[in-house]
Amino acid sequence: MSTHKARVLLTNDDGVRAPGLRALVAAARRHFAEVHVVAPDREQSGASHAMTLRNPIRVQKVDERWYAVEGTPTDCVNLGVFHLLGAAPDLVLSGVNAGYNLGDDVTYSGTVAGAMEGRILGAPALAVSTTHRAGPEEFELAAEAACRIGTTLLEKGLDERVFLNVNVPPAAKGHRVTSQGRRVFREGLITGRDPVGREYYWVGLAPEEWHPEPDADHAAVEAGYVSVSPLHADLTYRRALPLLREWDLPEESL
Ligand code: MN
Fold it and tell me: Could you tell me which residues come within 8 angstroms of residue 120 by beta carbon, excluding any fewer than 6 positions away?
């Protein structure tokens, strides 16, 4: 199948009205034959791979092939693949997120989880993010980059359960293939009091700081390159398997 005939499913975690998603829709319509949008009806940043289990999910048809879902990015892709599209898409694109998804942050990301859900349900998939200061130009650049990389992904393919995390800095000079970096974790907590006197907390506000690694995703973005990281939905750390077996945890008793 040639790429231009591809059926593509778009989602995000910034919500169905986010400018990054609109930029991705516009770019995807230039690159692919059939573009479907299934996105959360409100912002779901930080939702990670959460799935709505205890509440019904309502879906609103915004336009032809365009749905707003009362749920997470994972709900959206699941509903898209199994119900709204009628069949698995050829490609899933998630983004463009306003804010990079680098290093340990990918584990919190609803954007990355949207791509992961697509991949574990069988479709080649890619998450794309740019700076949180993005305007139309930056979103468009990131969306265009995502569609081009998505086209190559369709042509070349990747192993099962492997998907791509793409981060596009403004005025990017080119691409670098990278690995997931490591954040330096510091307290990033703000406390305050609400109007009725209850204390509140605001988490996740630590300044961005990374362990220095030349091949890491953040290093590419800092140097002005599009970072392209292959991620794997299998979280097993295989090198620890023989070590754990040496623990001799009893097989026949607790
Ligand atoms: Mn987001």
Answer: 161, 233
